[in-house]
Amino acid sequence: MPLDQVDVDKLGSGVEEKEMSFLDHLEELRWHLIRSISSIIIFATAAFLGGKSFFQWVFMSPKQGDFITYQIISKVIPSFSPPIFNLETRAFAEQFIVHIKASLLLGVVMSFPYILWEIWRFIKPGLYDKERRAARGFVFVCSLLFAAGVSFGYFVIAPFAIKFLASYDIGAINAPTLDSYVNYMVLFTLPTGIIFQLPVGVYFLAKIGLIDAEFMRTYRRHAIVIILVLAAMITPPDVITQFLIGIPLFFLYELSIGVAKRVRAAEDKKEAEEGAK
Questions:
Q1: What is the Cα–Cα distance from 119 to 214, expressed in whole angstroms?
Q2: Residue 197 and residue 220: Cα distance in Å, rounded?
Q3: Domain boundaries in the chain?
Q4: Dihedral, 91, 93, 97, 98 alpha carbons, nearest 10
Q5: Which of 7, 147, 266, 268 has the fewest other C-beta atoms within 10 Å?
Q6: Which of 109, 115, 96, 110 is nearest to 48 (CA)?
């Protein structure tokens, strides 16, 4: 049923579908939000109960010499290793608050596929059949791209950024706070996971006809500039780190051109088949 949602719980139960009122929409949305927030809380609680060892394993590994990225690169560049530095706390409850914040962050990351599924369940009843078919695999693809982006930020951007920032010396003692370190780890991972959704965004924009492959090719140079600006915004002022994020974004842009091209070809084929009838 287009545009107007129906009660999801009644679908497939033999009960006749009926249009939902505005209040019914709000009630349905409320339960989707409750379930999504609950999943975040469950994963965050599990991460918090993991205690010091789990926190150290997730957040402190990129600053340790035995981190897999350093081991791989050191085989080519023997001198490539993380600088030794200690993290400090300035506020009385900083460790406790940071632990809660880090656990909530992990809760969001781990529940991301489920949150997407809840979003899909909410919007799916209001779509036409062809729109549902077009969005098939939405949750899986977005989750995969998000995981790839977060992993890239964690295993590639974070080690290079930590080495650059912790090694930078103008005569002061480098003793960052625990809170600032965790904030930077968030900056290295979450934005990358979101930016990696570019092909999905291009797919839907191409579906509704706002952009096409020719448009993206024409403005490729402008896109490269925007990509470099984005890379500079989510990475420290280090040219190497900026290119580390800029290069995969450029490949994602080229992949998105291919996505837009396939969407246009599919639409042209459908139009030709309908015209032949």
A1: 31
A2: 18
A3: 1-7+20-194, 197-270
A4: 50
A5: 268
A6: 96
Give Cα 277 to chain centroid, integer Å: 43
Contacts 24+ apart (CB under 8 A), 48-54: 48/99, 48/100, 48/103
- In the block, tokens 């191409």 appear at 206
Q: Give SS3 for 115.
A: helix
DSSP 8-class letter at 88 = B
Please report, in angstroms and rounded to a whole number, the separation of the first and last CA atoms in the chain: 25
Model pLDDT for residues 178-195, shown as the tens digit of each residue: 999 999 899 888 888 888
- Distances 16 to 9, 13, 28 between C-alpha atoms, Å: 12, 9, 18
Q: Please, which residues bridge with residue 88 across strands?
A: 177
Q: Is the pTM of this model over 0.85?
A: no
Question: What is the three-class DSSP state of 252?
Answer: helix
CB 163 within 8 A of CB 82: yes
Judged against a pLDDT cut of 70, whether residue 89 lies above it is answered with yes
How many angstroms separate the CA atoms of 272 and 49, rounded? 59
Q: Which tokens hold the place of 185? A: 């780890």
Percent of the chain surpassing pLDDT 90: 27
Position 183, amino acid: N
d(CA 51, CA 74): 31
Q: Which residue has the higher pLDDT, 210 or 149?
A: 149
